[in-house]
Amino acid sequence: MSNCDDNCGVNLKQANAAERRVLTIVLLINAGMFVAEFGAGLWSGSTALLADSLDMLADALVYALGLFALGRAAHWRARAALTSGLLQLLLGVGIAVEAMHKLAENELPDAATMGWFGVLALLANALCVALLARYRSGDINLRATWICSRNDMIGNVGVLIAAGLVGWLQSAWPDILIGLLIAGIVIRSAWAVIHEAREQLADHH
């Protein structure tokens, strides 16, 4: 029996080390893409790129909190998930406000910049989804990281569609609408994480 316990302890440590390594990699990918996309969004005047970059930042925060929660008690993991959900909700509302602000300006963004960085972000998130796929049915924090990356790919495709429509129609409306759509995805995902985290916290009281 003691040998089984020892082996289980070793396996758990190895699992935690593997999870920590994957979370660190996707954290660095998302932090780097946030900087790149945010700069591109400012340069091109694209609401969709700015929204997507803030989505990357939200994910980086989720991954950082996931790293914090690894190996901790269940109530700490639930609190970390709740915090990440609240941060995502705040950023989602911020994205929506930025999109509404652009409605008044109606400035035409640079479609080419949107397209190039949309492709780059899509490739980055596809890598994150592949790295996190094995954890999509596990701990709430790891599950939240996989959901975030999956939703980001939807946002990336949206940026590419917006870039094509902006170039074709010579209108800022596709960019603004996609920005609002990404905001909606972020807010919906954040609310789901918050709801599940609150249920888990209630179970431990």
State the end-to-end distance.
Answer: 32 Å
- Give the rounded overall mean pLDDT: 80
Quickly give the structural class: mainly alpha
Contiguous runs where pLDDT drops below 50 for at least 5 residues = 1-13
Overall domain count: 1
Shape: elongated
Strand content: under 5%
CATH architecture: Up-down Bundle
Total of helices: 6
Q: Could you state the order of secondary-structure elements as H and E? A: HHHHHH
What is the top-level CATH class?
Answer: Mainly Alpha
Alpha-carbon Rg, integer = 19 Å
Helix amount: over 70%
**Can you tell me the CATH topology?**
Alpha-lytic protease prodomain-like
Largest sheet: number of strands, sense, barrel closure: none
How many β strands by DSSP?
A: 0
Question: Can you tell me about this structure?
Answer:
This protein is mainly α. The chain has a single domain (20-203), classed as Alpha-lytic protease prodomain-like (Up-down Bundle). It is built from six helices and no strands. Helix 1 (2-44) packs antiparallel against helix 2 (47-69) and helix 1 (2-44) runs antiparallel to helix 4. It is elongated, with a radius of gyration of 19 Å. The chain starts with a helix and ends with a helix. Residues 1-13 have low confidence and may be disordered.
